[in-house]
Design a protein that fits this description.
It contains 12 helices and 12 strands. Helices cover 38% and strands 14% of the residues. It has 2 domains: 100 residues, Aspartate Aminotransferase, domain 1; 238 residues, Aspartate Aminotransferase, domain 2 (3-Layer(aba) Sandwich), CATH 3.40.640.
């Protein structure tokens, strides 16, 4: 498939230079059609046994494609509603308390910081924030968990390689919201115990979709928090019912069939182009944007070979609004003098040129 054919799958790109997949990816026509088709059946036939049979058929497919994007076996991946839900399930399921230290970075998203703050209040665990680039060096004898981004949402920097060595002794929870679907992810190579990610960002799925990887070695050490019908191995066992022994025990309480249909079709729209080719194209386009910004005198935030590019503007909100009026969708980063562009394989050079033309 040619890049232009992939681009044509996303209607929003007919009008906008959409550079905001780091918030929500564009919706492929095929994904919208798949969700609409499922909802149409429910409208016309009601929601009863066939609806739930389709749900139980679609969820394994969603689990399989999400597992593929992080290099995991399907049984090691739970279906969640967001990155943050996965984070919450891990923090609540570990035996952390007073005297236990959690190390995190200074570039973390509120979706991770909020649950960490709640953990601190609830358990008395000590949460220590350090420079993102120094995470591995900060691990000490009291550290029981490292919780940080795989790719920083601020500028696209990658978590330190040295964390892979740390993960041999201390469990690592990675927030993969800006990585899954954006760059190649291999959880075994990363050595992480847990990996949480979103479906609505780089996987271009629906809001309310996500994944949580639980390494097999941590199955018995991570308690399932709030197991409900779908996460129980035998729901008919009443009070004797127990969660699935694998990651399915951490599934969200409900994942609608239209959500799964949307998620699978969105994944397949990019799979038709080829996921390895997609992540390579996106990274190359993002690197070219970063270079062009520097050539125009902009200060670009530290980044790796990822899909995010952030740069300094005197008034980021004003720039965001001016860009939107010109048909260019980017975002500001609250509390920081930065504007962020999220570059996907569905973008092309014309999108970057429209953005660059706004620089004064």
């Amino acid at each position: 498939m040619e890049p232009a054919t992939l681009r044509a799958a996303f209607a929003v790109l007919d009008r906008y230079a959409y550079l905001n997949a780091g918030t929500c990816g564009p919706i492929a026509r095929a994904a919208a059609e798949a969700a609409a088709a499922e909802l149409r059946i429910q409208v016309e036939e009601g929601r009863w046994t066939p609806t739930f049979e389709r749900m139980l058929e679609l969820q394994p497919r969603q689990r399989a494609v999400y597992a593929e994007r992080v290099g995991a076996a399907p049984e090691d991946v739970a279906l969640t509603t967001s990155t943050s839900e996965g984070v919450v399930r891990v923090l609540a399921g570990l035996d952390l308390g007073p005297g236990d230290e959690v190390v995190t970075g200074d570039e973390e998203h509120p979706g991770l910081l909020g649950p960490l703050a709640a953990l601190r209040r609830r358990t008395g665990a000590h949460v220590r924030m350090v420079p993102f680039a120094s995470l591995a060096d900060a691990v000490g004898p009291a550290t029981r968990l490292v919780a940080c981004s795989h790719v920083s949402w601020i500028g696209g920097a990658l978590a330190p390689q040295a964390l892979r060595e740390v993960a041999r002794d201390v469990p690592v929870l990675l927030d993969g919201a800006q990585a899954a679907g954006a760059i190649a992810v291999d959880v075994a190579e990363l050595g992480c115990a847990f990996y949480a990610a979103s479906g609505q960002k780089w996987l271009c799925g629906p809001i309310g979709s996500g994944l949580l990887y639980v390494a097999p070695a941590w199955r018995e050490r991570l308690r399932a928090v709030g197991p409900t019908y779908l996460s129980l191995a035998d729901p008919s066992a009443g009070l004797d019912a127990v969660p699935h022994a694998d990651a399915r025990g951490h599934d969200a309480s409900a994942v609608a069939p239209d959500t799964s249909a949307f998620a699978v079709a969105a994944h397949d729209a990019i799979a038709a182009f080829g996921w390895p080719a997609a992540v390579e194209r996106a990274a190359t386009l993002a690197a070219s944007l970063a270079d062009a910004l520097r050539e125009r005198g902009r200060t670009v935030a530290p980044r790796g070979r990822t899909t995010l590019v952030s740069w300094e503007e005197d008034d980021p909100v004003a720039f965001r609004d001016r860009a939107a009026a010109a048909g260019v969708v980017v975002r500001d980063l609250p509390g920081r003098p930065l504007v962020r562009a999220s570059v996907g394989a569905f973008n092309d050079e014309s999108d970057l040129e429209r953005l660059l033309a706004l620089l004064t």
